[in-house]
Amino acid sequence: MVAAGVDWDAIKVVRSFGLQALDRIAEPGAVVVDPSAAAPAVYFFVRPGTTDGWNVAQSTALSVTNHVTLPPESRVMPPGPYWLTSPADGRLHTDTATVRAALERVTGSRPSWNPRMEHFT
What we know:
The protein is α+β, with helices and mostly antiparallel strands. It is 17% helix and 23% strand.
């Protein structure tokens, strides 16, 4: 297990949504799949300190005080956690705003903005 919040923060996503979001990210960083969890998950790694206030459906931000089980760099298939995109491929971080936009699109999340009806009449 490796501490988050030092070299990276992680975004833990329900696997089905995480894989759909990954398809919408042109330049992803490292991505881990954990198929063995009670709820299978995908982890995106973003720059440390960029997940404050994270509130995207079907996902959780992991930073200081959290840990993530990382597979060996050579593990690219189950059993256990494995790299879908390895940091050995040269890129660790995915842009946080890009992960947010992709997840909001696949989960149907909307920004927390309640328009006043007089703006539409």
